[in-house]
C-alpha cells in the first residue's frame, strides 16, 4: 500500500511568488504544488496538499489526518512563531512531521528564530527556497524507510 | 431563577482522552462533559458547554454570553498563552470567569507558565485532571453565593 | 478617480462603546464608523469598513485589497501583539498602511507596547480615542498627496 | 478508616481578616478554620490545622506528617516565593499536596508570580478568597478518590 | 478666545532637510514651520514654535507655557529616549501634549523604541514625515474640541 | 502621651562592631543602642529595641507592635533582600516604618540593591554608619509631627 | 570656622508645591529653602542653595564647590537616573555628598529605581517629603562630626 | 565537468555509532561516509570527506576549498555553538554551504539552539539522523541546479 | 592541640536516606555522621556535628563557633540558595569554611545553580554523595596544614 | 590647503589632572592640549580645541563644524553613554569622527561599556591615557590620507 | 588489577606557579604533578598526567582513554567555559570524570561561573589551590570504591 | 637596546584582502605586514609577526614571548569573542598588550561587541582598516616611552 503524506501550507503562502520575491522566490504556490506532486509520483508516495490562513483550520486538518496519513510535511509560516495550538495538535495526533521553511529563518527578524514546533517535529529543513518542500518530502520518505528497516 | 454557567473548552480538547494520556488522562471530552453536567444538576445550576479550535469563535462565544450567563468556566488550552483577543473579550464582557487547566501547567514547558488571562479572571484551578472542571464549577458556584451573601 | 481606503477594525471592537468606557470611550462602533464615513466624504475619498474577530479573515481581507485599495487604515487591536500572519499579509501585499490605536498603548500592560506591525506600516497614531481613526485617515490622505507631488 | 488531611497556613495568616481586607477579605483565621472543619466533617474526612510564621516549623510539621496524613492542603503565603526548604520538604516526604492562595497571585507584584513549590504539588487553586481552602480540600478529596478508583 | 498651541522641536532639528534626507526628507525646518503656521491659521488656532538643542531650555520652555498655552505638540527628537527631566516637566505642568516623530521610530535602532514620555502624553503620531506635525496639531485641536463637547 | 517607636535590628547585627569594621564600623550593638536611647530621650520619645536572627520572630514582633507603637525603625539586614514574610508583616500591620541600613547598600554586591520592603515603608536611610539609626529615628519623629500638623 | 554645605536642587524642583502634590507635597521651593536655612542656622552651619534645570550648570556648580564647601546635599531629581556627567563631577571633586529624594523613589516607575550616583555618595535619604532635605543636612553634619572625632 | 562537494564532520563525530546511540544512532562514521559516497555517485557529483576535532584545521580546510569545491556540506557539531572563527571562514571564502545536524538540536540543551553559522549558510537540515547528510547533499545539488537554471 | 571542625547539616537533611534515594543515596544522616566521625578520628581532628531546619539557628551556631572551631564544613542544603543571613554570618565570623553538596547541584533545577555563599567560602565540593562530607573534611584539614606550612 | 581637525573634550575634562589620577593621569587639560597642538604642528594639520560641560553646546559645536573641519576627534566623556543628541549630531553633519577615551572604558563600570556613538564614528581609540588623543589625531590624519589615495 | 586514572590539565596550566600567584599559588606544574603521583602511589592507583593548550588534543586524549582508564580528573581551565567539544567528548566516552579548579571560580569574573561540563561530570571540587587535584583524585578513588561496594 | 614588539594576527587573517573587501579592505596580509615593518623601522623598534588559525598556537606564542618581547600588538579576530584561553595567556604572561581590530566591531553583529580580552589589555584601537595596526604599534611605542619617562 502506498504511503500517504499530507503537505500543509500556512498563512499568506497563497500569495507565494507574488510576494517579496527576494525573500520567497518567483514560483507561485500552484507551481510549487506541481513540483511537490511530481516528486511524490516519482518516489511512489501519495500527497495531499492543503493551504489555510486560519489557525483553527490548520489544527483541525491535522486532527483529521490521524489514521489516514503516514507523515506530515508542514510549513506553518507565521504560525511557526505564534501558535501553541498547532504545537498541541502535532503532539496530540503524534503523526511524524517535518517542518519546512522556504527562507532561512535565521537570517530574518529575531522573532522568527523561535519556532514553537521545532522540538515536537522529527526535524527541520530551512532556507532552500521552494526546494525546502522537496527536501522535506524526501526527509519524510527516508524517515518512513528507516522505520521499516529498523 | 437558576444560575447559568458557560463552560468553554479550547483547542485540541476535542481529542481529550485520545491524546497524551500521561498528560491529560484517559477520559474523553464526552465523558468529562457528562461529569460536568451531572455535577451541575446536583448543585442546581444550568450549564452550557462549548468547544472550539478557533480563537475568533471563542471570542464571539464570550461576547454572546453577555446578559445570559452568570459565570464562565474556561479552559483556554493553547490560547491561554497566545491570545490577547481572548483576554480582551473577558475584559470587555466582564462576566466573572474561572480559569481551569487539566494538567499542572507549572510542570510543563516554560512558555506554558505565562497565562495571558490569569490576571483578568477571578481565580485559577490547575493540575487536577478532569476534576479541574468540577473544582472550577464549584468555585464559580461559591463565588456567586458569596456575592449573594455580601 | 477617487482614492479608496480600506478601514479594518480588529477583534472585540464590535463591542466598542459597551466595553471599558474609561479605556475606549462611549461611542459605539456604529457611531465611529459614521464619523469615519463623514470625514471621508468631506475629504473626497472612498472608504470601506470591515470588522472581524478572526485573524484568518483579517489576513484574507488584506489579500483581497490588492489592486483595489490605495491605502489601509488598520486598528488590529489584540492582533497587534500576537499576529505574525497579519504582519506577513501587510508585507506581502505592500499596500501602504497606517496603524491606529484608540487608547494610548504606552499607558497599558507591558505586552501591549510591542507591536508586531509597527515597523512594516508607514506610521502609527495612538491615544486619541475614536479620533485616532480620523487622524489615521488624514495621515493616509496626506501620504497619498505627497506621493503625487513627489 | 477515615482520610486525614493536614491544612497548613503560612506566615502572617494569623492576622487574616484584620489585614488588607480588599486583598484577603474580612473573615478571621478562626472563622476560616471553622469553615474548613465544617466542610471536612460534611465530606467525612479528618483535618488538622496548623499556622506558623517560622519556615523551620513548617518544614518540620511536614516531616512529621509522613505516615500519618494522606494529603496536605498548604497556603505557604510568603514562603511560596522564597523557601527552597519548603520545596525540599514536600519533595522529601512525597505526601500529595494541594497549593492554595486566598488572593489571585497573578494580579499582584511580579515576584508573587513565581512559586517555588508549584511544580512539586499536584495542583494549585488561587484567587477565590477563603473558599480557596474549601476548593483545595475538595481537590485533595477528589484526588484520593481517583487513586482508589484507579 | 483663540486656542494657543506651543510647538517644540528638539535637538538637531535645526538641521532638518540638510540631514539624512532618506530618514527625514528634504524640507528644511523653516519650510516645515511655514506649513505648521499655515495649517494653524486655516484651523483658527494660534501657534508658537520653538527649537532648542538644550534639555534645560526645553524644560524651562514647558514651565513657561503654564497658564498660557492650551496644548503642546512636541517632537523631542533625541531627548525622547534620554530625558527624564522632560518627562517630569510634562508631568509637572500637566499641559495636554501630543508627541510627534518625523520618522517611524519603530523602524530604527532599538534604543529609539523606548520613549520616556509616551505614557505621560495624550497620544503619539509617528512616521509621516513633516506631516507628523500637521497630524499632531490636528490631534491637539480635536482633543480640545472633544473636551469642550464633553 | 509620649510617642513610642520600635527599633528592630535584623540578623547578625548582634555581632556589630566585632564584624567587618571597614563595612560596619567599630561600635558594638550595645553602644549603638545607647546612642539610640540617648537621642530618643533628648527628643522626648520612647523607644524599645529588639534584635533577632529569626525571620519568624521578626514577623511576630511586628504583629505584636500593632496598637502599641506609633512607628517602626527597622534595619532588616540580610532579610531586606530575602523576606517576603517581613514585607507582608509590614503591609498587614500598616504601622509607618522607616528602613535603615548602616552601610551604603548601593556600593555592595548587586543582590543587596534589591530591597523587598523599600516600597512598603515610608522612606529609606542608607550609608551613614550607626548614624543611620539616629537619622531613621529623626525621620520617624518628623513624620509623626507632620501628621499632627496636617 | 563654620562648616559650609552646598544644597543643590535638580530640574523641575523650581515648580515644587505647584506640581503633583500627591507625589511631592504642597510646600513651594521657597518654603523648603527657608526650612533648610532655619535648620542650618539652628545647627550652626552655613548653607548655600542652588537650583538648576541644566545638567551642565549642575556639573559646573559642583566643580566650583571644590575647596569652598565641606559637603554637598543634592537632590538631582531627574538627573539621578540619566546623568553620568553628574556622577563624574562628584567623583572628580570628591566632596562628600548626601543624595536626597523627596518622594520614595522605590514606589515609582521602575527606571526611577536606578540611581547613577548612589554608589559614589556617602549615603542616601529617600521618601520623607521636604524633610528629606532636613535629614540630609543632619546626615552631612553628623558625618563631619564623626570625621572630627575619628 | 562534475560538481565537487566538500563534506566536513566536526569534533567527536569520529566516535559516531559508538556514542550515545539514542541521540545519534548506531551507524559508524565509516558507514555514514559510505552512504554519502554512494548517494553522490548516484547523483553524479564528486565528494571529499573530512573529519577533525581541531577548530583551526576546520578553518584551514575551508580556506583550502576556495576555487576547488562548488559547495560545502558541514556538520560543525560542537563548533556550531562556539566558533566565530568557523563563521568567519565561511564568510571569507563565500563557498555556498549547507549546515546539517544529525540530532534535532531544538530538542536538546538550550545552548545548542544557538548556531553561530546558521545565518551565513544557505540553509539548515536538522534532526533526521545520518540521513541529514543525504538531505544536505541533495540540498546542495538542488541549489547548484537552480543557479544553473537561474 | 587538636584541630576542631564544626560540621553543619542544613534543612531536610534529617530525612537523609529516607528521602529521594536516586538523588541523595540510601545512607541515613546517622550513618553519614558515623562516617564523618570515623574519618575525623583517623585524621586526628575533633568534629562536632549539628543539624537544623531553622535559618536563625544555623546563623547563631556559626556565631557561637567563633574562637572555638578552626574550620567549618557546611552543607547548607536549601539555604544555599536563599539565605543572605547565612552568608553574612560566614562573612562576620570569618571562620574558614568549606561548602559541600551531596548531589551535583549543576544537574538539578536552575535555581540550585546559584549559591549565595560560594564566593565567601574557601572552596566547594559537590556531587559525590555522602563522600562529599569526607572530601570536605579532608579539604579543611589540608587547608589548615597549608596554613601551618605557609 | 591645510587639513582642519576639531578636537572636542566632553564634561569634567576641564578637571583633568586634578581628578582621579589613578584613572586619568596627572597631566592637566592645558598640558594635554599643548601636546595635541604640538603633534598637529609636526604633522602639518590645523587643530581647534573645544571643551564643554553642556550637551547642547557640544551638539551645536558639531553643527558649526560642517563645511569647516575635515575631521573630528572627540572624547565625549560622560556623554558617550547618555547622549542620543550627540549621536544624532554626528549622523546629521556626517563629518568623519574618531572617538577617543583616556581610560580603558572596558575596565570600568558596566554602563561605561555602552557607547551611543561607537557605531557612527569611523573608529575608536581607548585606554592609552592622554596619548589616546595623539593616536586619535593620527588616526584622523591617516584616514584623510587614505581617502586622498583612494 | 590497579585502577588507572587520567589527570588532564587545560590551557595555560603549563605556566602554573609562574603566573598570578595570588590566584593560583607558587607551586609549578612539575611540583603539583609530583604531589599527584605521590598521593596516587600512596593510594595504590596508577595515574597518567597530560597537559595541553589545544582543545582538539584534549578531546582526542579523552577519546583515547576509552577502555583504558577507569576515571578522569580534569581541570579544563579556560575550556571549562567555552568548549562544547569537551563536553561532547565526556558525554561520548562516558568515563566517570571529576572536575577540579585550583581557584574558587565563584570569586572571579562572572563568565567563569558557567561551566559547560559541570552537569556531565560526577562532581566538582573548586577553590583549594593545588590540593584541589588531591581532593579530585580522592573523590575518584572513593567513587570507584562505592561502585565496587554497590 | 631596541624594543621588541610581537604582532599577532588571528584566524582567517591569512585571507585578508581576498575576503569581504567592504569589511576589511583590499590590502593582503603580506602588504599589511610590509607596512607594519616599514613603520617599525622608521620608529626604530623591532617587530616579529605571527599569524595563526589555531587558538592553542596563539596561546603558546604568547607564552613564548615572555622575557623576549616588550609589548604585544594583537588582533585576535574571531578569538576576541570566544577565547578565555587567550585571556588567560595574556593575564599569565603579563606582557603589555594592545588590542587592534581592522573593522569597527561596534558596527557589526552584536556578539562582536563583547571582547574577552579588552579589560586585560592596556587599550584598544578599532575601525581604521589596516591602519589600526599602525596605530596599535604607535600606541605600544608611546606606552613604552611613558614608562621610561615615568
List keywords for this structure.
homododecamer; 150 residues; alpha/beta; Rossmann fold; five-stranded parallel beta sheet; 6 helices; 5 strands
From the N-terminal CA to the C-terminal CA of chain A, the straight-line distance is 19 Å
The CATH class of chain A, by name, is Alpha Beta
Per DSSP, the total helix count of chain A is: 6
The order of strands across the largest sheet of chain A is 2-1-3-4-5
For the record, what is the CATH homologous superfamily label of chain A? Answer: Dehydroquinase, class II
Describe the model.
Twelve copies of one chain form a homododecamer. With 150 residues, chain A is an alpha/beta fold. The first copy, chain A, has one domain (3-149): Dehydroquinase, class II (Rossmann fold). In chain A, 41% of the residues lie in helices and 17% in strands. Chain A is built from six helices and five strands. In chain A, strands 2-1-3-4-5 form a five-stranded parallel sheet, with helices on both faces. In chain A, helix 2 (29-43) runs parallel beside helix 6 (131-149) and helix 3 runs parallel beside helix 5 (84-93). The longest helix of chain A has 19 residues, at 131-149. Chain A is globular. The relative contact order of chain A is 0.20. The model of chain A has no long low-confidence stretch (mean pLDDT 94). The interface between A and H is medium-sized, with 24 and 24 residues.
Amino acid at each position: 500500500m502506498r504511503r500517504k503524506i499530507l503537505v500543509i501550507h500556512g498563512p499568506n503562502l497563497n500569495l507565494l511568488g507574488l510576494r517579496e520575491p527576494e525573500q520567497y522566490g518567483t514560483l507561485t504556490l500552484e507551481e510549487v504544488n506541481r513540483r511537490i506532486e511530481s516528486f511524490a509520483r516519482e518516489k511512489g508516495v501519495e500527497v495531499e496538499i492543503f493551504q489555510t490562513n486560519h489557525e483553527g483550520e490548520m489544527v483541525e486538518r491535522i486532527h483529521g489526518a490521524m489514521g489516514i496519513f503516514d507523515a506530515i510535511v508542514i510549513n506553518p509560516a507565521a504560525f511557526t512563531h505564534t501558535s501553541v495550538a498547532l504545537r498541541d495538535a502535532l503532539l496530540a495526533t503524534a503523526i511524524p512531521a517535518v517542518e519546512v521553511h522556504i527562507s532561512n529563518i535565521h537570517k530574518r527578524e529575531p522573532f522568527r528564530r523561535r519556532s514553537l514546533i521545532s522540538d515536537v517535529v522529527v526535524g527541520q529543513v530551512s532556507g532552500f527556497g521552494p526546494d525546502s518542500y522537496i527536501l522535506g518530502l524526501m526527509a519524510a520518505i527516508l524517515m518512513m524507510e528507516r522505520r521499516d528497516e529498523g
